[in-house]
Amino acid sequence: MIDARNVYRKVTRKIFDFSPEQEQNLLAIVWLYRGETGRYLDLVAGYCQRMLTEGAACFTMKDDNDEMVEPLPDFLSALTSLRSYFDPFLKTLAKDAPHTEPLKGTG
Q1: DSSP helix/strand/coil, 84
Q2: Distance CA 15, CA 23 (A)
Q3: Which of 107, 40, 43 is nearest to 79 (CA)?
Q4: Which secondary structure element, helix H or strand E, spans residue 16, and what is its range?
Q5: What pLDDT, on the 0 to 100 scale, is given for residue 3?
Q6: Coil, helix or strand for 24?
Q7: pLDDT tens per residue, range 30-84
Q8: What CA–CA distance (Å, rounded) separates 38 from 32?
Q9: Cα-based distances in Å from 31 to 20, 24, 34, 62, 88
Q10: What pLDDT band is residue 105 in, cutting at 50, 70 and 90?
Q11: Nearest-angstrom CA–CA distance, 25 and 40
Q12: Are strands 9-10 and 68-69 parallel, antiparallel or unpaired?
């Protein structure tokens, strides 16, 4: 028996079910119990491969127009630009204001 009472997603107010990943993870517990470690390791390898693919997409990917974009570097550039707009305001605040601790070391 597997106690999966707290493993669910809420679909509607009265309907709860398992996501495909939750089903796979519960099934993996059964595989391990039965000694089918190869199936479990294949599942984990699939998860790792998906994580690496999605992580790589943060750095370079193609957009809808089939042009290469760099989501993470573009996002960091946008944050730097946003910070430059906030700097004049931050300089008007007191040196011992609550904002100073989080901003230490951010340049």
Answers
A1: helix
A2: 16
A3: 107
A4: strand 16-17
A5: 87
A6: helix
A7: 999 999 999 999 999 999 999 988 888 778 888 888 888 888 888 888 888 988 8
A8: 9
A9: 16, 10, 5, 38, 59
A10: low
A11: 9
A12: unpaired
Q: Which two tokens stand for residue 37?
A: 């470690």
Residues near 28 by beta carbon (within 8 Å), at least 6 away in sequence:
39, 40, 43
Residue 68, SS3? strand
Residues 6+ apart with CB under 8 A from 86: none
State the Cα angle at 85 between 80 and 87, rounded to 5°.
Answer: 90
3-class state of residue 69 by DSSP: strand
Q: Give residue limits of the domains in the chain.
A: 1-57, 59-92
What is the mean pLDDT of the segment spanning 23-31?
A: 93
Q: How many whole angstroms separate alpha carbon 90 and alpha carbon 85?
A: 10
What pLDDT score does 39 carry?
92
E-only strand ranges, the chain:
9-10, 16-17, 61-62, 68-69
